[in-house]
Amino acid sequence: MYFRDVIGLQDVKRHLIESVQSGFMPHARIFYGPEGVGKLPLAIAYARYLNCSNRGSDDACGKCPSCHKFDKLAHPDLHFVFPVVKSKVSDEYLAEWRQFLSENRYFNLSRWLSFIDAQNAQGIIYSKESEEIIHKLNLKVYEAPYKVMIVWLPEKMHETCANKLLKMVEEPPANTIFLLVSEDRENVLQTIWSRCQPLQIRAIEMEEMTAAIEQTYHLDHAQALSYARIANGSFTRAVELITSSEERDFYFDLFKEMMRASVSRNIKAIREVAATIAGIGRERQKSLLLYALQLFREYFVSNLNMPEIVYLNNGEQQFGERFAPFINESNIESFNDEFTLAHRQIEQNGNARIIFLDLCLKVTVLLKK
Is residue 107 very low, low, confident or very high in pLDDT (cuts 50, 70, 90)? Predict the structure, then answer.
């Protein structure tokens, strides 16, 4: 991945390039911002530029031995840490990771876990990963100017692992650079955060997003603009809208079942939908809850008669014509609190059947407010 492969963010690219050219390279950076805006591609492009032997004014050369190895993500001084399953370490999934990155530039945790067939498991950076990191970084730089460790989603790092890395992040060996890529800064251990220079990555601008969609998927301007508007700054979401509409439809169908059962106050129907959701796996359960939070936001805003800031597809709009009036000032904050709590409980491996049964019963009460 090169800087030119990252959609938009020209100001951030220029800042990173100029920092290298001026010789100012913090030993630890954390790229943070919303999902799908290009933080990981940006980190890899920055790592490539750092180690390129013939840097250009706006990108790596693409011709030197270092760049050829980065093309395959197989440079001996480039290391990755990322969430895995089955209490393993990242290196045990390195072949899959390289294949996945070669096929996907913009993605989320759910897609990665689906690729490795994680099933019901949650992605975690396990405590024993710290030993692997310390071992790798204590070795001398192999052939490049810098040894680079890219940690994708440090918020998924086990606290024991994070605590063992504090000294390494604060005082890494010579010519070693940490690049952390976070989508949830609130859940990054504060002691890790405080040892990194933060770099906020904003959402992709509408014009940049639209142009990228047109070029990537060969859509006309009107279609691309429609997808860009709903994606609201996330190219990952745009890709899902274009290529994986079935997954979004799946969450939408579950959301409708959940709301209809709750409105009806039919205990049998509520128990059935809770059991259905309990069987879809934890990562999909979390995605469903985040999707529901997004819909609540859109339906609440739609009641304000401001269609220009509502981001719904046709099916969601049609359902909202009847459902949106149920989402109002009296219950919107409670919906947010309850669904956020359920998301946290699922992350903590709570009993999904009980969590969603309880949530449906709470929705029954909230919809009557």
Answer: very high
With a CB cutoff of 8 Å and minimum separation 6, the contacts of 217 are 224, 242
Give start and end residues of each alpha helix (H) in the chain: 10-21, 39-51, 65-71, 94-103, 109-115, 129-138, 159-170, 190-193, 206-217, 221-231, 235-243, 245-264, 267-278, 282-302, 314-323, 332-347, 352-366
Q: Are 132 and 90 in contact (CB under 8 A)?
A: yes
Q: Does residue 316 contact residue 252 with C-beta atoms inside 8 Å?
A: yes
The whole-number average pLDDT for the span 7-12 is 95
Could you give the number of structural domains in the chain?
3
CB 187 within 8 A of CB 214: no
264 and 121 together in one domain: no
Instruction: Indicate whether 161 pLDDT > 90.
Output: yes
Query: Please, what is the average pLDDT of the chain?
Result: 92
Pairing of strands 147-152, 78-81: parallel
The DSSP code sequence of 180-194 is EEES-GGGS-HHHHT
- Number of residues assigned to the chain: 369
Contact, 3 vs 17, CB < 8 A?
A: yes
pLDDT digits (tens, 9 = 90+) for 357-366: 999 999 999 9
- At 72 the three-state DSSP class reads coil
Q: Which residue has the tokens 């490049």?
A: 144
Domain containing 101 — which CATH number?
A: 3.40.50.300
CATH number of the domain bearing residue 286? 1.20.272.10
Closest CA to 126 of 91, 84, 96, 93: 84
Q: Which of 148, 142, 24 is nearest to 81 (CA)?
A: 148
3-state secondary structure of 3: helix
pTM, two decimals, is: 0.74
Amino acid 265 reads: R
